[in-house]
């Protein structure tokens, strides 16, 4: 049995996953706010999940920059910055046998490992994944390898510059993709339009409580023809389509997988995005690259984490055959 630990901003989830990617046990707790509580709660969570089971390998998915084999949290700004410098595998001591492989990685990369082993990228070696949430995360598989780069930063697709003179981003740069396309960007733009008094469906529905607006509300208003909501969404989509097209020209991926909360917008997101990327890439690539949603499902964080050692073992077998 594989053990997967998914460290998220709101919850810690652990589960047992069989070799077919099926989740057989799962538990979660709210994410603690200090390292002492984190160690205590994570230890008890993992012990409960692993109890009475032989664990053959374990994986950990975590936001930020994570050293895969040492499992050290290299950089994690924000609420969970208490984990910086922490060795995540220490949480498994005494629970996972000492000879079992334990790997950790950035959560978007873990999600792509899950899709490569059990989901939309199964059987494929070249895949591009974007997680479309409050920010935009990403991961790249190139010739079967999860690309980490020189210092583990590779895949921060949300911080690709799309407008050098654009607004400042959390990362300190200007005009990053996620300042135009992300739940946070759509909500901030909609809030600003309401506060300026722009006449729109957004103001009619959310004028009394503009902070309650979600990015899916903006998609809904756009779908009902509201010109301001449409302009916010369409501008974001143009930048997203341009970035995906540029990445396909750079990486020559077989498939683009979209995850994250914004995929709940469904065809309102996928249909125009597919048309735009096709229009931008068909001439050079000579084919239509499928843009699909992640298929591992609601437990993708745990299953993705558990897939990290499986994917690494598959890479090692492939290298041995070559
Ligand atoms: Zn940025």
Description:
This protein is an alpha/beta fold and 322 residues long. The protein folds into 2 domains: 2-119 and 297-321, ATPase, nucleotide binding domain (Nucleotidyltransferase, domain 5, 2-Layer Sandwich), CATH 3.30.420; 127-293, 2-Layer Sandwich (Nucleotidyltransferase, domain 5). It is built from 8 helices and 12 strands. It has helices at residues 35-50, 107-118, 183-195, 201-206, 215-223, 227-251, 267-285, 300-321, and strands at 2-7, 11-17, 23-30, 57-62, 65-66, 73-75, 101-106, 127-132, 136-142, 145-146, 255-259, 291-293. A 5-stranded mixed β-sheet has the order 3-2-1-4-7, sandwiched between helices. A 5-stranded mixed β-sheet has the order 10-9-8-11-12, with helices on both faces. Helix 2 (107-118) packs across helix 8 (300-321), helix 3 runs antiparallel to helix 6 (227-251) and helix 5 packs across helix 6. The longest helix has 25 residues, at 227-251. It is globular, with a radius of gyration of 20 Å. The chain starts with a strand and ends with a helix. The relative contact order is 0.15. The structure holds zinc ion. The site of zinc ion (ZN) has 6 residues, from loops. Residues 159, 169-171, 173, 176 line the site of zinc ion.
Strand order of the largest sheet: 3-2-1-4-7
Total domain count: 2
CATH H-level homologous superfamily name of the largest domain = ATPase, nucleotide binding domain
Number of helices: 8
What small molecules does this complex bind? zinc ion
Which consecutive residue ranges, at least 5 long each, have pLDDT under 50?
Answer: none
* Classification by helices and strands: alpha/beta
What gyration radius follows from the Cα positions, in whole Å? Answer: 20 Å
Record field, number of beta strands: 12
Report the CATH architecture of the largest domain: 2-Layer Sandwich
Q: How far apart are the termini?
A: 28 Å
Do you know the CATH topology of the largest domain?
A: Nucleotidyltransferase, domain 5
Largest sheet: 5 strands, mixed
Strand content: 15-25%
User: What's the helix-strand series?
Assistant: EEEHEEEEHEEEHHHHEHEH
Arithmetic mean pLDDT: 94
Name of the CATH class of the largest domain: Alpha Beta
Helix percentage: 25-40%
- Overall morphology: globular
